[in-house]
Amino acid sequence: MLRLATRAPFHLEATVRVLQRRPTNLVERWEQNRYIRVITTRAGLSVVEVENRGTIDAPNVHFSISHGSASKASRTEIERILRVKLGLDVDPRPLQRRAEAVPALRTTARALRGMRPPRFADLFEAFANVIPFQQVSLDAGIAIVTRLVERFGLVLEHAGTRRYAFPTASTIASARLEALRRCGLSGHKAIALKNCARLIASGKLTDEAIAAASTEQALAILAALPGIGPWSAALVLLRGFGRLDVFPPGDVGVARNVGRIASSLAPIVERFGPIRGYLYFCLLGGALLERGLIKAAR
């Protein structure tokens, strides 16, 4: 077991649950109080497990490699990926203060104390976790992504369980449109996802280029891509790059979640200011709390 240092508080379960969105997610797994994920490294695929042996207010987070290369280089690469995906270097204190400062959100914020804003592994994974959700319910989007993973993701058999790696950009770039449509994507969404995959696989669109751009520039670059509008561009930046200064406009699911605590979204967004993206995770986390998928912090 290798330690993942992070500031208190840290709510691992809440962080993983808002990352996976639904328990049926085949890639982001929460099992027996552990986060389990197949991570792709330069050495190949590894099954990685993360657990908090401490508490939310005194975290003692460790990870282990239960399958795959455990070389020093692989361990270093996996640690870097986990730190980004789980928001381990994000200071939780200003997030918590801002969330608790909104009266309508205070109970939810306290229940989610220590939740970090998680991120998808890379730019393509962000696109593939946004495009299928355009104008459909969360459950419908998850079902489409599940079929994409089953059809195009590599599979590891480990300890009697099938573990799935997320499909790569190159795999989707070379896939037939009809095969993508059989996963539940509309024709327009299949074309959009394949186009994004081709741009990334060819090196014409990179994580580094988006990361180096200002938020305004990055939104413009993404929104100019076929099939990527303002909502999709904002979610790619928020969930793929941790840009907490963006909030997805016109999100029906978010509006529904807001309806549980307030009559209007705009004033709450304004209260969050430059970390307004964290409100998105709070609202999603609140909905998952209601479903009993997150244990409230104590």
Describe the structure.
This protein is globular. It has 15 helices and 7 strands. The strands form 2 sheets. Strands 1-5-4-3-2 form a 5-stranded antiparallel β-sheet. It starts with a strand and ends in an 8-residue tail after the last helix. Strand 6 (155-158) and strand 7 form a beta hairpin. It is of the alpha+beta class and 298 residues long. Helices cover 47% and strands 12% of the residues. Helix 13 (252-258) crosses helix 15 (277-290).
The side-by-side strand order for the widest beta sheet comes to 1-5-4-3-2
Structural class: alpha+beta
The coarse overall form would be: globular
Number of helices: 15
Mind telling me the C-alpha Rg? 18 Å
The average pLDDT is 94
- Strand segment tally: 7
The profile of the biggest β sheet is:
5 strands, antiparallel
Order of helices and strands: EHEEEEHHHHHEEHHHHHHHHH
Blueprint (SSEs and pairs):
Blueprint: E1 2-3, H1 12-20, E2 29-31, E3 34-41, E4 44-52, E5 61-67, H2 72-85, H3 92-100, H4 106-111, H5 123-128, H6 138-152, E6 155-158, E7 161-164, H7 169-173, H8 177-181, H9 187-201, H10 207-212, H11 215-223, H12 230-241, H13 252-258, H14 266-272, H15 277-290
Antiparallel strand pairs: 1-5, 2-3, 3-4, 4-5, 6-7
Helix pairs in contact: 11-12, 13-15
